Amino acid sequence: MRIFITKPIIESGIEILRSAGHEVNVHQGEKGITKEELYSAAKESDALITMLSDKIDEEFLEKNSHLLVIANYAVGFNNIDIEAAKRLAIPVANTPDVLTHATAELAFALLLSSARRITEAHNSIASNNWKGWEPMGFLGQSLANKTLGIFGAGRIGQSFAKMCQGAFDMEVLYTSRTEKNDFPAKRVSFDELVEKSDIISVHCDLNATTMGKFNRDIFKKMKSSSIFINTARGEIHNEVDLHWALTHGEVWGAGLDVTNPEPMSADSPLLKLPNVTITPHIGSATLKARSEMSDLVATNILKGLIKEKLLTPVY
Ligand code: DGY
C-alpha cells in the first residue's frame, strides 16, 4: 500500500513501513507542503503521516474518505477535525507518552531561562554590552519552594510538575476536568490557580474552551512576580496581551515554545523583550523522542492498513 508523509521524519519508522512491503513517499523541500500538494498526494495514498502544521479539516477528509488511517506526528491533534474523521470512519492516531519527558524538560528549561534571565544575559554578551561582573547584574528569581500552577494536568503537565517538585520542592496547584489521584498536588479552581501561582505552566490541549484563555484580564490577575510558560499551543495565550502584561509589570517573565502564528515573525514585539525566552516549538525535539514518535506512527499505520485497532487512537 502507499503511505505519504508530509515532512521528512527519522528513518526508523519509514524502514518499518518499507520492510512490511509498503511504498512510502515523503514530501521533500524546505517549504511546507501546500494545500494542493497535500490533496494530490492524499488522493494517491492509502494512509498519511501528518504534522501538527497540516490542516486536516472536514473538506480534506470528505475528499479523502478512502484513507485507511491518519497518524499525526504529535501528541496534540487540534490540526485534525476529529468529529469529521469519526463520521467518515477514518481512524486517527497521535503520539502520546513517547514525548512526555522531552516536552516537560523543555518547559523546565524555559522556566530556568526565565527565572535566571539566561536569554537576556546571553544576549548582553553577544551584543557586546556586558561590561563585567556586577553585584547588581541580572538579579533573577530563586525557584526554591515556589508555587507552581499547572493548567492542564495530563501526562506532560504532571511530568513537569514532578521535575519542579524534585528539583525545587515546589508546591503544585492544578486545574483539570478530573481529580488526578496519583498526582501529589492540589486541584484548585482556575481563579485560584491564577491568583496563587508564582509560575503558571500551560499543558492543556487546544480546544474551544482553552483558545485565548490567557488574555489581558487573566494576566492582570496573576502575581506581578509570576512567570508564564507555554509549551502546549500558542493559541492558548493572546500574544498582544502577553506583551502588554510583560511591559506593564503584570507578569515578570515568560518562556514560550509555542507561538501564534507559527513560525513567529522575526518582527514580533515579544522577541524584543528582555524578559522572554522563545523557542521554535521544539518540545519533542530530542533524538530519543522523535525516534520513538517515528516508530509509533509507523506501527499505527500498519495497524490501520489491516483495519486493526490502533496502538494510540485519538478516538
Ligand atoms: C505535540 O506533539 O503536540 C507537541 O506540541 C510537541 O512539542
UniProtKB/TrEMBL annotation:
Keywords linked to the UniProt accession: NAD, Oxidoreductase
Residue span, D-isomer specific 2-hydroxyacid dehydrogenase catalytic domain: 3-314
Domain (D-isomer specific 2-hydroxyacid dehydrogenase NAD-binding) ranges: 108-283
GO cellular component: cytosol
Pfam families reported in the protein's UniProt record: 2-Hacid_dh, 2-Hacid_dh_C
PANTHER family per record: 2-HYDROXYACID DEHYDROGENASE-RELATED (PTHR10996), GLYOXYLATE REDUCTASE_HYDROXYPYRUVATE REDUCTASE (PTHR10996:SF277)
The family this protein is said to belong to: Belongs to the D-isomer specific 2-hydroxyacid dehydrogenase family.
Protein name in the entry: D-isomer specific 2-hydroxyacid dehydrogenase
